[in-house]
Amino acid sequence: MFHLPITSLKAQFGDIDIYLFDQLLKGRIQKGMKLLDAGCGYGRNIQYLMQAEIKVYGVDASTEAIDRVQQLAKELAPTLPARNFVQADLEQLPFADEEFDVVLCSAVLHFARSEFHFRSMVQELWRVLKPGGMLFCRFSTTIGLEGKLQQLEGRFYRMSHGPVWFLADEALILDLEQQLGAERLEPLKTVLVEQERSMTTWVVRK
Ligand SMILES: C[S@@+](CC[C@H](N)C(=O)[O-])C[C@H]1O[C@@H](n2cnc3c(N)ncnc32)[C@H](O)[C@@H]1O
């Protein structure tokens, strides 16, 4: 019988994405791996990973986010160098080809400024991933909400909470997979939030 207090889960995992947690349960992220969180924000998805002997790196366009994540690393994983966390755009990642075992990108790609920008960001995530490595992305799409969203131009939509987002669809994801030669590790999983937005998790192997 386990007697672990449920409250320790929050202390350990923070606000980790549930589908990323699923990848942990499946054993796809292991001790010693080199992992990049691209668009890491304040680090909710790497809080646990930093403490699990994973070589965590992070980039974000916001210097404030990078300051916060460096502080988090200092507190939780003092052996992780602060230089692992840098301000950068996903379009131009400051890393060599094939550096990472795992690349995460959660809630970033729908901020793309154009389809070209979206594709360039995905291409960069792919470039820095090792052959055999896992790319885990979560982004807003039109899946399950076809015809119900306010379309502006091309793949840009006015979201019900105000902003204009770039929304991919299944055809674009399939096209990217073919272009990259990616192997799907999971079926696409999409959560519909109040019939207002759709968040899709895309997990592939290089
Ligand atoms: C909604 S937050 C998500 C943060 C984190 N991935 C998470 O899931 O909590 C989006 C983050 O992406 C960053 N971002 C947006 N566009 C970016 C880009 N082109 N390059 C790098 N970071 C970007 C923002 O600065 C912000 O911190």
UniProtKB/TrEMBL annotation:
InterPro entries in alphabetical order: Methyltransf_11, SAM-dependent_MTases_sf
EC number, UniProt record: 2.1.1.222, 2.1.1.64
Enzyme class: transferase
Domain of life per record: Bacteria
Gene3D superfamilies named in the record: Vaccinia Virus protein VP39 (3.40.50.150)
Domain Methyltransferase type: residue ranges: 36-137
The protein's name: Class I SAM-dependent methyltransferase
SUPFAM superfamilies linked: S-adenosyl-L-methionine-dependent methyltransferases
Gene Ontology biological-process entries: methylation
Coiled coil spans: none
Keywords carried by this UniProt record: Methyltransferase, S-adenosyl-L-methionine, Transferase
Species for this entry: Pontibacter ruber
